[in-house]
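Student:
Attend to each token:
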Amino acid sequence: MNVVHVLYDLATYPDYVEPLGEEIQNTANKDGGWHKSSYSKLRKLDSFIKESQRCNPPSMLSYHRVMAQDYTLNNETKLTKGTHIAMAVSAIQNDPDVTPSPEVFDGLRYYRIRQQPGEGHLHQFATTESNMLNFGHGKNACPGRFFASLEIKTILVKLIMDYDFKFLDELGRPANLKAHEFIFPNPEGQLLVEKRDVNETFQF
């Protein structure tokens, strides 16, 4: 699902395609080819994927639990045994105190943050934070998030470097589908896809 969301966002904001492609090509040139470690150097692409997920999270809620016993929170809220609770992960990460101007899609938002001292290894797509909970956090963090990140980047590198794509019509990005708290890319969206000339494509 995340790959489809990213493709829809790239078609919506095509000005990002060139800098993402340049980053991929420059990384390959510096690495003398393409290696597994090359993916971790794609900071702009990582940022774009993370921003796409922020705007199109897999779910509005997470951390679903049923209370096994009565519990009182620090603010005196009482949770009785059997109560179904969840975290509003989308609302948390889109709080203006967490994400400035959350209504704006900024594909390089996290790339710029990672340029700041001490932030280089934080704010990645697969990084968990107390206010970015799509992959959970702490001991409950998704153990497969690193593989998912690598898989998504592998697909996107090939698509960005070898194909041009745009929406079929002028309607733009199709609205997401929602089922309960879950969000899905609209399967009825249509992209025109054209393979570039062989001399322009990326060679792994």
Q: What stands out?
A: The CA atoms of residues 163 and 190 lie 15 Å apart. The beta strands are 62-66, 71-72, 78-79, 84-87, 163-167, 177-179, 182-184, 191-195.
